[in-house]
Amino acid sequence: MHDLIQQNFPFFKEPELVDAIANVAKEVNVKEGESIIKIGEFIKSTPLISKGLLKIVRQDDDGNEILLYYLDGGNTCVMTVTCCMKQEKSKIKAIAEIDTHLLLVPFHYMDEWMRNFRSWRNFILQTYSARFEEMLAALDSVAFESLDNRLLKYLSDREHALNTQEFHITHQQIAQELNSSREAVSRLLKKMETKGHIQLGRNRIKIINI
């Protein structure tokens, strides 16, 4: 496991930290579409993503969802860190967008590593900062941007997150993640196809020029 950690998390500089992670982390493979974190659950481990892609989603009591951000290799979900350290129930859910490999670190090591390892502390603080900016962007998008612009940004973000111009997704899934209606999303997607920005297929979208 040492090689895996050093390859995917090269910013963990202290050999003692790499040893500590290797000694306590549990390797988990998550299939595309599976949830690793559900709303209302107590979180006992923090996921370090070595390979793959997770999407982090917020959901209200009526089941309405909004996509907060994506997490790829070399990242962690700071919301799980917060819930772990406060021993609170999760307020988000995390779903594998593609097959994903994780290292699960038990929460009771968090305080110790924050105190003892500068590179771990920097990793957590930098991750907090990056995710905070992404959540502000998600909030601004809902509050101030038109659905047209939100849809364009969603497709662009997904293209970069998955590193592919073509992906499988339904109009209903997009609508759910943008907290909109399927009809409105389908109408805008058709307009984008007419303009040559995308190509639509059965549960498939190919990015041409956006």
Your description of this structure?
The structure is a single chain. It is built from 8 helices and 11 strands. The protein is α+β, with helices and mostly antiparallel strands and 210 residues long. It has 2 domains: 142 residues, Jelly Rolls, CATH 2.60.120.10; 63 residues, Arc Repressor Mutant, subunit A (Orthogonal Bundle). The strands form 3 sheets. It has a 4-stranded antiparallel β-sheet. A 4-stranded antiparallel β-sheet has the order 2-7-4-5. Strand 4 and strand 5 form a beta hairpin. The longest helix is centred in the middle third of the chain and has 27 residues. It is elongated, with a radius of gyration of 18 Å. 23% of the residues are buried. The model has no long low-confidence stretch (mean pLDDT 92).
Short characterization:
This protein is an alpha+beta fold and about 210 residues long. About 45% of the residues lie in helices and about 25% in strands.
Task: Name the shape in a single word.
Answer: elongated
Name the structural class.
Answer: alpha+beta
Radius of gyration: 18 Å
How many domains in all? Answer: 2
End-to-end gap? 40 Å
Q: How would you spell out the order of helices and strands?
A: HHEEEEEEHEEHHHEHHEE
| Main β-sheet, spatial strand arrangement | 1-8-3-6
Number of helices: 8
Average pLDDT rating: 92
What is the C-level CATH assignment of the largest domain?
Mainly Beta
Strand content: 25-35%
Q: What name does CATH use for the topology of the largest domain? A: Jelly Rolls
Look at the structure and name the CATH superfamily of the largest domain.
Answer: Jelly Rolls
Number of strands: 11
Indicate the CATH architecture of the largest domain: Sandwich
